[in-house]
UniProtKB/TrEMBL annotation, chain A:
Its EC number is 2.5.1.58, 2.5.1.59. Residues 1-14 have a biased composition (Basic and acidic residues). The keyword Transferase applies. Its cofactor is Mg(2+). It holds the Pfam family PPTA. Residues 1-32 are annotated as: Disordered. It comes from Sipha flava (yellow sugarcane aphid). The keyword ATP-binding does not apply. This is Protein farnesyltransferase/geranylgeranyltransferase type-1 subunit alpha. One of its GO terms (cellular component) is protein farnesyltransferase complex.
Automatic annotation (TrEMBL), chain B:
PANTHER family: GERANYLGERANYL TRANSFERASE TYPE BETA SUBUNIT (PTHR11774), PROTEIN FARNESYLTRANSFERASE SUBUNIT BETA (PTHR11774:SF6). Its EC number is 2.5.1.58. This is Protein farnesyltransferase subunit beta. Pfam families: Prenyltrans (PF00432). It comes from Sipha flava (yellow sugarcane aphid). Signal peptide: none annotated.
C-alpha cells in the first residue's frame, strides 16, 4: 500500500558488491556538470533541504542528487516556470521518479509554457519503460492522455509494458482506465487476454482482465455459457490452477435459478470421479453441495456427509496448511444442517497444547 | 523434514505444464526447502529453535534511524514512512527510544508538516496522504505530548477535504491518483486524531466496496485484480467507516485463506504470485478481525482461520538476515526497512492469534508486542494516542 513496495527493488544495503551501477546515476557520460557550476544558473541561489537540527532518517545523498534538488527547491520557491526549469525537473525525475512533488511541478511548467503534449507523451513513455512500477509515472501519463483526449496509442503502449512483465499491476490498472474512459477500445481486448492466457495460463492478471471485459459487456446467458466452456477447457489443462477456478466462481455470480451451478456441478463431479483431487475442485464441490441441499431427506443427508468428508480430506491430506479453515467450513455445514454425528470431524488444536 | 515443522508442507505441482509462473514458484520453493532442511538438522539437537534475532534487528533498525545509505534515495519522498517503519519495528521489539531521540524524530516530522495541512514526503515537498498516514502513525508510536501536539488537526481536516472526490474516494495528492489506499489513509488519520465526520466520508464505503473483486479480495480501484495490500486497505477502511456489513466476508475469507502458501507457509499478494514476507502482515492482519466478525455474526466461538504456526516458521526460518539484521521478502533478497516493519508486524499478528493468549513458535523470548491489525500501531501506543485525541475533543468544523 505504500510507495516503497512499488518502487524499484532496493539494492543491497551491504556495499560488498563493487560493480553496483545505476543507470539513473551516471547518466552515461562523465562530463556531467553540476548545476552549481553552470553559468546559466548563476542567478539562482540553491536552497538546501531543511531537515532541521535533528538527524533522523537522513539519506546519504550522492553529490549530484543534492545538487539537483538544491536547485529544484530554489525554483519551486521562486515559482520559476521556464525551459531550463523543465530541464532541471527532468534531471530530478531521473534521480528519483517517485518524487511526486517534482511531477506536480513538471505538470505546472508544461501547462504554463504550453508545451506540446505529444512531446510529453513521448517523454513519459520513455520514463515508464525505465521505471515500470511506480505510481507517479502512470498517473502523469493519465493526466497527459486526459488532456490530449487521445487514447490511440495507449493499448499498444500498455501491451509493450506488459510484455516485460505480464503481471505489472500499474500497467493493468492504467489499461482498464483507458478502456473505461474512452469508447471503442474494448473490441479486441478479449483476444489480447486470450493471447496472454495461452502464454501463461496461470497469469491471474490476465484472468482478471477477462472478467473485467466480460463484466463490462453486460453479458447475456449465451456469453456466460461460452465463458463457462472456455474455463472448463482451461481447467482440464491444469486442474490445480487457482486463477481458472476463481474465474469459474466469478461466472457463478451471474447465475440465475441455479442453472450455472448445475453445469458446474456436473463438470466437477466428472472430474472428481476420474480421481482428480485438486484442492480447488474439492472446495468448489463443497460449496455446490451446500447450495444443492434443501431438505433433510436421506439423499440430502448423504450429500451433506459427502461435503463433510471432503472438508476432512482437505484438512488432513490435500490441503493441510488450511486445516483450521476447513474445520470452520465443516463446522458451518454441521451447524446449518444440524448434523452432529458423523465420521469426518476435524479436530484442531488451539495452539495452547 | 516435516517432523520438525508445524504442518506437513506440500510442494507446488505443475501438472507437467511449465509457464513463467510455475518455474519461478518452483525456484522459490527450492530455496525455501534448503532453509527448512537446514533448520530441521539444527532442530534435531536444539529444541529452542527457531530464534528471532532481536538484538541484530534492533541494531539494524537503530542504524537506519539516523543515516540511510545512498540506495535509499528512491525513498527521499517517503521519509515519514521510514520513521514509521522504524518506530513500529522498535515498538514491537519493546525497545524505547531515548528522550532526545524521540524529540529528534518529532522535530523532523514537524518539519515535514505542510503549512496548508497534511504531511509531505520530506521537508520542502508537497503534502501527500501516504506520508500523512505514516507521520501520524509515527507520532502516535512516539506517544509524547510533544509528538501529539505537532499535528495541526484543523489543517489536516482541510487537507483531507481538499482530496475528497465527489464519489467518496480520495486522491493521494494534488493531481494525484485515487485508489483504496487513499480512503484507508484518510480514514485512519481521521479516526486516530478524532477529526472524523460523516460528511468527510459520505459514500466512501460505497466506493470502497466496489473494489472487492469476484475473487474475494480487493483491488486498488474497481475492476482491478485482488491484491494483498489493497485488500488490507479496503477491509480496514470499511471497518473504520463502520460499514463492514457491506463486505462479502465469505469470499474474502476464502481468497485470503488461499493466499497462504502450501509449502512456504508465508503469504502471496495475489493469486499465482510468489510469497513475500511483507504479506505476513497485509494478509494475516485480516484474520483476527474476520474471526471476530464471524464470532459475533454466528454467535459461537471462533478460532484463527489460517496457519499461524507455518507463518511464524516462514518468517523465522526464511525472512531474517542474521548477520546484518533486518528482515526480508524471501530468501536471497537483501533486508530493507519496509520489510523489517511488515515482516515483524506479521509475526506479531501470528504470535497473538489466540484471544487472550499467545502462541510463540521457537524460543519464548521470540515474543513481540501486540500490534493492532487495523492501524498497524503497537497496541499500548495506539490506546494512549486514541485516549489523547479523545480528550482533545472535536475540532471546530464551522469554518470549513
Amino acid at each position: 500500500m505504500d510507495d516503497r513496495k512499488k518502487s524499484p527493488e532496493l539494492k543491497s544495503d551491504s556495499s560488498d558488491s563493487a560493480d553496483e551501477t545505476d543507470p539513473s546515476r551516471n547518466n552515461g557520460c562523465s562530463n556531467y556538470v553540476m548545476y552549481r557550476d553552470r553559468p546559466e544558473w548563476k542567478d539562482v541561489q540553491p536552497v538546501a533541504q531543511d531537515d532541521g537540527p535533528a538527524q533522523v532518517v537522513r539519506i546519504a545523498y550522492s553529490e549530484k542528487f543534492s545538487d539537483v534538488f538544491d536547485y529544484f527547491r530554489a525554483i519551486i520557491k521562486s515559482g520559476e516556470k521556464s525551459e531550463r526549469a523543465l530541464n532541471l525537473v527532468t534531471d530530478a525525475i531521473t534521480l528519483n521518479p517517485a518524487n511526486y512533488t517534482v511531477w506536480i511541478y513538471r505538470l505546472e511548467i508544461v501547462l504554463y509554457l504550453k508545451i506540446d503534449l505529444h512531446n510529453e507523451l513521448d517523454y513519459i513513455s520513455n520514463v515508464i519503460r525505465e521505471f515500470t512500477k511506480n505510481y507517479q509515472v502512470w498517473q502523469y501519463r493519465k493526466n497527459i492522455v486526459e488532456m490530449l483526449n487521445d487514447p490511440s496509442g495507449e493499448l499498444e503502449f500498455t501491451a509493450d509494458i506488459l510484455d516485460l512483465d505480464a503481471k505489472n499491476y500499474h500497467a493493468w490498472q492504467y489499461r482498464q482506465w483507458v478502456i473505461t474512459t474512452f469508447s471503442n477500445l474494448i473490441e479486441n481486448e478479449l483476444n489480447f487476454v486470450d493471447d496472454l492466457i495461452s502464454q501463461d495460463i496461470r497469469n491471474n492478471s490476465a484472468w482478471n482482465q477477462r472478467y473485467f471485459v466480460i463484466n463490462m459487456s453486460n453479458p447475456n446467458a449465451d456469453v456466460i455459457d461460452k465463458e463457462l466452456k472456455y474455463t472448463f477447457d482451461k481447467i482440464q489443462i491444469l486442474t490445480k490452477n487457482e486463477s481458472a477456478w476463481n474465474y469459474l466462481r466469478g461466472l457463478l455470480l451471474y447465475s440465475e435459478n441455479g442453472i450455472l451451478e448445475d453445469k458446474v456441478s456436473t463438470f466437477c463431479t466428472q472430474l472428481y470421479d476420474k480421481g482428480n483431487r485438486s484442492i480447488h475442485l474439492l472446495s468448489c464441490l463443497i460449496d455446490l453441495l451446500d447450495v444443492d441441499v434443501n431438505s433433510t431427506e436421506l439423499e440430502d443427508v448423504e450429500k451433506v456427509k459427502f461435503a463433510l468428508k471432503l472438508c476432512s480430506d482437505l484438512a488432513s491430506v490435500y490441503d493441510p496448511i488450511r486445516r483450521s479453515y476447513w474445520a470452520y467450513i465443516s463446522s458451518n455445514i454441521e451447524n446449518k444442517y444440524s448434523i452432529k454425528e458423523h465420521d469426518f470431524k476435524i479436530v484442531i488444536s488451539n495452539g495452547n497444547n | 523434514m516435516n517432523k520438525f515443522l508445524a504442518v506437513s508442507r506440500l510442494k507446488f505441482n505443475n501438472e507437467s505444464v511449465e509457464t513463467n509462473t510455475s518455474s519461478s514458484q518452483i525456484q522459490v520453493e527450492r530455496k525455501v526447502e534448503k532453509l527448512f532442511e537446514l533448520f530441521c538438522s539444527k532442530a534435531e539437537c536444539n529444541s529452542e529453535t527457531p530464534v528471532l534475532y532481536k538484538q541484530n534487528h534492533m541494531t539494524y533498525i537503530k542504524n537506519h534511524m539516523f543515516v540511510l545509505p545512498e540506495n535509499y534515495e528512491c525513498l527521499d519522498s517517503s521519509r515519514p514512512w521510514l520513521c514509521y517503519w522504524l518506530c513500529q519495528s522498535l515498538a514491537l521489539l519493546n525497545c524505547e527510544l531515548s528522550v532526545t531521540e524521540k524529540s529528534n524524530v518529532v522535530s523532523f516530522l514537524s518539519n515535514c508538516q505542510h503549512e496548508t495541512g497534511g504531511f509531505c514526503g520530506g521537508p520542502n515537498q508537497m503534502p501527500h496522504l501516504a506520508p500523512t498516514y505514516a507521520a501520524v502513525c509515527a507520532l502516535c508510536l512516539i506517544g509524547t505530548s510533544e509528538a501529539f501536539s505537532v499535528i495541526n488537526r484543523d489543517n489536516l481536516y482541510k487537507f483531507l477535504i481538499s482530496l475528497r472526490l465527489p464519489n467518496g474516494s480520495f486522491r493521494m495528492h494534488k493531481y494525484g491518483e485515487s485508489d483504496v489506499r487513499a480512503v484507508y489513509c484518510a480514514a485512519t488519520v481521521a479516526r486516530l486524531t478524532n477529526i472524523y465526520t460523516d460528511t468527510l466520508f459520505d459514500s466512501s464505503a460505497q466506493w470502497v466496496i466496489r473494489c472487492q473483486t469476484y475473487e474475494g479480495g480487493f483491488g486498488g480501484v474497481p475492476g482491478v485484480e485482488a491484491h494483498g495490500g489493497y485488500t488490507f486497505c479496503g477491509f480496514s477502511a470499511l471497518l473504520l467507516l463502520r460499514s463492514i456489513h457491506m463486505c462479502d466476508t465469505k469470499s474474502l475469507l476464502r481468497w485470503v485463506a488461499n493466499k497462504q502458501m502450501s509449502f512456504e507457509g508465508g503469504f502471496q499478494g495475489r493469486t499465482n504470485k510468489l510469497v513475500d514476507g511483507c504479506y505476513s502482515f497485509w494478509q494475516a492482519a485480516i484474520f483476527p478481525i474476520l474471526s471476530e466478525l464471524l464470532e459475533s455474526e454466528e454467535q459461537r466461538t471462533m478460532w484463527s482461520m489460517y496457519n499461524y504456526q507455518a507463518l511464524q516458521e516462514y518468517v523465522l526460518i526464511c525472512c531474517q538476515n542474521r548477520y546484518s539484521g533486518g528482515l526480508i521478502d524471501k530468501p536471497g533478497k537483501p533486508p530493507d526497512v519496509y520489510h523489517t516493519c511488515y515482516v515483524l508486524s506479521g509475526l506479531s499478528i501470528a504470535q497473538h492469534s489466540i484471544k487472550n493468549n499467545t502462541c510463540v513458535i521457537g524460543k519464548s523470548e521470540n515474543i513481540l508486542n501486540k500490534t493492532n491489525p487495523i492501524y498497524n500501531i503497537e497496541e499500548s501506543c495506539l490506546e494512549k494516542a486514541l485516549q489523547y485525541f479523545k480528550i482533545a475533543g472535536p475540532i471546530n468544523y464551522e469554518h470549513f
